[in-house]
Amino acid sequence: MPDFAWIFKMAGRDFRKNLSRLLLFVSSIVVGIAALVAISSFGENLVRDIDDQAKELLGADLVLENNKPLGEQAIDSLALEIASEVNFASMVAFPKKDASRLTQVRALEGNFPFYGKLETLPLEGEEDFRSGGKKALVEKALLTQFDAQVGDSIKVGKVLFEIVGELQKVPGQTGITASVAPAVYIPLAYLEETGLVQYGSRVEYSRYLQFPAGTQVDQLIKPFESQWEVDRIDADTVEDRKESTGRSFANLSNFLSLVAFIALLLGCVGVASAVNVFVKEKIASVAVLRCLGVPSLEVLLIYLVEIVGMGLVGAMIGSIMGTALQFVLPVVFSDFLPVEVSVGISWKSIGFGMVTGLLVSLLFALLPLLKVRKVSPMATLRPETADTTLLKDPARWAVMLGILLFILGFSYYLLGKLIWAIGFTLFVLLAFGMLWGVGIAIMWSVRKFLPLSLSYPWRQALSNLYRPNNQTISLIATIGLGTAMISTLFFLQNQLLQEAKFADKEDQPNLLLFDIQTPQLEAVKAKVIAQKMRVLQELPIVTMQLNAINGITKKANEELPEEENYSRWLYNREFRVTYRDTLISSEQLTDGALIPKGARGDSIFVSFEKGFAEGNGFELGDEVEFNVQGRPITTYIGSLRDVKFNQVSTNFLVIFPSGVLEEAPKFHVIITKTKDDLQAAAVQSEIVREFPNISIINLGTIVATLEEILGKISFVIQFMAFFSIATGILVLISSLIISKYQRMRESILLRTLGASSALVRLINTLEYFFLGSLASLSGILLSFFATFLLGKFVFQMNFSLAWKEGLVIYLAITVLTIVLGWLNGRKIINQAPMEILRGNG
Amino acid sequence: MSILSITQLSKTYQSGSRSLTVLEGVNFSIEAGETLAIVGPSGSGKTTLLGLCAGLDSGTSGSVVLNGQALEQLNEDQRAAVRNQDVGFIFQNFQLLPTLTALENVMVPLELKKRKDAKEKAMELLEKVGLKDRATHYPTQLSGGEQQRVSIARAFANAPKILFADEPTGNLDTETGAMIENLIFDLNKEQGTTLVLVTHDLDLAARTKRIIHIKGGKIQEETHA
After folding, report:
1. Residue A630: pLDDT above 80?
2. Running DSSP on this structure, what letter comes out for residue A340?
3. DSSP SS3 for B170
4. Where does the pLDDT of residue A841 fall: very low under 50, low under 70, confident under 90, or very high at 90 and above?
5. A699: closest CA among A514, A527, A509?
6. Which of A538, A809, B24, B108 has the most CB atoms within 10 Å of its CB?
């Protein structure tokens, strides 16, 4: 039985002389632990705040929603108070600027929100709005975009409203929502006058209900649910909203924790590498202890206790930092948060950070530490017999398995699904494996192919990459992976924007007009042509709902087991379909054929979008009954199409053949092309002025919105990826400090042999240049690969080599490495060569 | 009675496909309390022989019986226990633990034996070697001679039955070396320990009762004082 008292005593004795070195080791994990604890604390606080503020999230006790007017509901009589809202997308115009834009119009009646408030500037704006009259509250983002202010006018449909308040916050909304669809509140009383709600408008009718305090709303609504099901009314309670919002943010928190975990793993690589160097330096002492009679297990435990003790210290420091860091997170995530987030100490998160830090220190330090078991006491007499190769050591494989299981277990804890955990673990192994492989390949190549014809400083600098106790490979892995993460994000963001901007080519449409009523169609076309623009596409759109799939109605579907039923959403959603017998440029037939009406008897064959069909269990030949404004129409799926949704075009999930829907109520869409923003603004102003119900989207707006959203998302992810870069930098600094004395000896030796300080400086600079270059290039290559895969399989866009951006990242990382190397090594060059004779080098 | 008995001891090292025989068919024994020097030129195998005698390594063939225990039948941890109980070492390059003070270095063998008076005993030994005032100093703060004196104190700490010394004065100047030699022999006489010394210094070897001359891994001759 090991003498633990003595082991701890010896660990303490050794530790006091190794304190600064061990602090360096654990600095590598501090950042990762800080990130984990910060995210975990933040996530916990957020979920708790969502819980506490759930009523404010919904603004009511119950919300009923439908895309048709709700009419009187039996539950209304039980409510203390009721408010109504009609919500739809529409153009609004700012007469002062003669500018317009697509927004979310919310026509409100009643005291909604019952919990929380519409925060406005000035504060009395909300009260003013509710006092009656043609007054509007406009979201801050919209006012900023059009340089408008409180007191200006805003035209919504045919009605001019006075802006009485700048909306700061709407219950349950986030900053991102404001970017995509900024809101304008108007009184419901004037909705009809605006003339905006017409056939085909995508309108959502909401009713907000408040019940007496203490009402168990989930129980209260049970008797009404079946009727709501039939009427396709969505009912949302506070519990529902709490659950869905909480789940979304729990998922976000878990995702971000994974990002933090990657930073931690990078740190662990640094720890393992540094402990490897530590162990090599301890071989002599280990041999002496073995000689004196210390069993091999106790020798191992002495150093393990030391390192794990420092791991605990690192975890503590990281946890404290993380607890402090969480104060910054609400600012970072402000655009995504639907509630006010409180910050406070989360002991659970701190405990989580401590346990994680302890475990990773133990596992990753153990891997190199196992070598001490193999040190022969004979090494005291013959140092060359200190053979510490462990290739066939089963304990080493056991530890590696332990590490793998830890990664799997940790990711499963966060993700909740084994398949995702396995996927994440494989991703980590692949990424690290690739970088490790690149590092080994580079070192091997340098050793094998180093040309003698190269000048001495270059040869020496390259040789230094594989000097004894080098950490070249771990640096490539850590800095490389951090670079890869940030680069991938950067390249992907650019590529997405390029895809959007690509659509703005000569032959590609960039302006879409929709919600055009049939009587307006010819006039709108005339206006477009008058502006010297071509009508590139003109499509009718008919709205309908789904009655049955292969004879299975909505009610029958409810009774089927979950693995057999169709999604409820299919029966509740409103389909917008068009009719034609040909394909357009953004479509490609993958299965079946477009079958015109009459080609096969009386049967009507429709075409489904392939992804939609496959994702919802539809197959060729399935019978689908649609409800077209009260009239059932039976159809069969005759073909599947692959649709490129990233083009500015009218793309449809379902297409009917011609000759079926011509008599149905419809609205129209026109697609055209403007040559510049001026022309776009001009045609937009004119059409909105005369036909305020028509909505217009131009590619410029999409690109600008996409840029804004991507910017917000990428800021968050870059913030998280920063932890990986920071860890990589700490590992680099740690490595430079650890190798400082070795470099000093080399420097002194070179200078004793006659090398000038300038030459020694050049060699060191070149070495840092190579280190930084190898690390950043490996990361950039990995990110190109990742961007290619994501583009091909997730975003379905072509890969383009962002070589300019790659060059910028390469230069930044390389220069940073050189600067850090200089800062660390400035004293080394100045050491007097005399030190080597004194043996103090 | 023999405290150390070597029978047909051989040691061969493998280096890739090549093998190097460092010791071949060595036979000798030492009685308790005897002093023995192993001398030979550089590369003769004397240090390897010392290591095998002390159980730091195992021979390729043959047997080493130390204090009645056949070392080749023991695993590494069992040999470590034997070393802790019965063996003391003095090394050419002192081999002090750099992160321990002089006192702590001497305490280690005593602590391994779970001696409650480890500190007091260690201090006594340091006083004997004249380093009581340097007890709290680290090896880097001591001169070569002082480090070797600490190493000697450590070697005698567990009252070993047999002391092995590998070129104990090899890294020291003449004057210091002489002082160390005297210290080793005085303490050895005081404690009645068996001493096995490896050296290329014939004057030092002459202070022992027996000298084994080794060359090319084989014992060439044995002389007596």
Report:
1. yes
2. P
3. coil
4. very low
5. A509
6. B108
A10 interaction partners in chain B (CB closer than 8 Å): 108
Q: What is the mean pLDDT of chain B?
A: 91
Query: Which of B56, B154, B198 would you mutate first to test chain A, the one with the most A CBs within 10 A?
Result: B56
Whether residue A371 is predicted with pLDDT greater than 60 in this model: the reply is yes
Taking the C-alpha atoms of residue A284 and residue A162, their distance in angstroms, rounded to an integer, is: 84
Give the separation between CA A164 and CA A151, rounded to whole angstroms.
Answer: 6
Q: Give the total residue count for chain A.
A: 841
Instruction: Give the per-residue pLDDT at A840.
Output: 45
Q: Could you tell me how many helices (H) and strands (E) chain A has, helices first?
A: 26, 21
Rounded to whole angstroms, the Cα distance separating A809 from A817 reads 12
- Chain A positions in Cβ-Cβ contact with residue B97 (cut-off 8 Å): 14, 285, 288-289
Q: Name the DSSP class of A794.
A: I
Rounded CA separation A651/A672 (Å):
15
Q: Which tens digit of pLDDT belongs to each residue from A205-236?
A: 999 999 998 889 989 999 998 888 878 888 99
Contacts of residue A382 in chain B, CB cutoff 8 Å?
47-48, 51
Dump pLDDT digits (tens) for A27-46: 888 888 998 898 888 888 88
Structurally, at CATH architecture level, domain B33-58+85-224 sits in 3-Layer(aba) Sandwich (3.40)
pLDDT of A580-603, one tens digit each? Answer: 998 887 888 999 999 999 888 889
Q: Sign of torsion, CA A783 A784 A788 A791?
A: positive
What pLDDT score does A499 carry?
Answer: 67
Q: Which member of A284, A290, A382 has the closest CB to residue B47?
A: A382
Start-to-end Cα distance in chain A: 42
Q: Please tell me the distance from the alpha carbon of residue A372 to that of residue A718, in angstroms, as a whole number.
A: 40
Express each pLDDT in A721-737 by its tens digit: 777 778 777 877 877 77
Looking up tokens 């959502």 gives: A204
Query: Rounded to an integer, what distance in angstroms lies between the CA atom of residue A787 and that of residue A797?
Result: 10
Cβ within 8 Å, pair B77-A296:
yes
Question: Cβ contact (<8 Å) for A13 and B57?
Answer: no
How close is the nearest chain B Cα to the Cα of A10, in Å? 9
Quick one: which H or E segment has residue A137? Answer: strand A135-139
ipTM of the complex: 0.89
Q: Of the candidates A456, A645, A661, A462, which has an alpha carbon nearest to the alpha carbon of residue A578?
A: A661
Candidates B79, B108, B138, partner chain A, best to mutate (most A CBs within 10 A): B108
Q: Measure A284 CA to nearest chain B CA, in Å.
A: 8
| pLDDT of amino acid B208 | 92
Question: A449: how many CB neighbours lie within 10 A of its CB?
Answer: 8
Binned at pLDDT 50, 70 and 90, residue A524 comes out as very high
Domain ranges of chain B: 33-58+85-224
The lowest-confidence range among A413-422, B3-12, B20-29, B158-167 is A413-422
B154 to chain A: which residues are within 8 Å by CB?
Answer: 292
* Mutate: best of B20, B42, B71, B76, partner A, most A CBs <10 A: B76
Are the CB atoms for A344 and A45 separated by under 8 Å?
A: yes
Q: Do residues A588 and A642 touch, judged by C-beta distance below 8 A?
A: yes
Minimum mean pLDDT among A90-94, A173-177, A186-190, A796-800: which range?
A173-177
pTM, two decimals, is 0.75
User: Under 8 Å CB-to-CB from A582, ≥6 apart: which residues?
Assistant: A594
Ramachandran class of B130: left when φ > 0, alpha when ψ lies in -120 to 50, beta otherwise: left
Q: Any chain A CB within 8 A of the CB of B141?
A: no
C-alpha B103/C-alpha B142 separation (Å) is: 12
- Statement: residue A323 has pLDDT above 50: yes
Query: What are residue A497's DSSP bridge partners?
Result: none
In A529-613, at which residue ranges do the beta strands (DSSP E only) sit?
Answer: 535-549, 552-553, 575-579, 587-592, 605-609
